[in-house]
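Subgroup meeting minutes
Present: P.N., E.W., G.H.
Scribe: E.W.

1. P.N. recapped why we're keeping a running log of single-chain structure predictions: easier to compare across weeks, and new members can see raw inputs and outputs side by side.
2. G.H. added today's entry (68 aa).
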Amino acid sequence: MEHEDRFVDIEIKLAHQEDLVDSLNQTVYQQARRIDQLEAMVQQLAEHLRTMREVGRQNPVNERPPHY
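Output recorded in log:
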């Protein structure tokens, strides 16, 4: 009987570990998706910043008029 109880305990622990691994895997997957989204957002912001700098060089807002 003692061996059977040990096997049952081991099976229960294994089932909990499998659930934990599945949960952690799901968390890692969601984090990877979020990281991909954030990287895409940073790329878009960098491109927007480059565009704004180019526009700013062509038409400076705070440039003094030539008669100063």
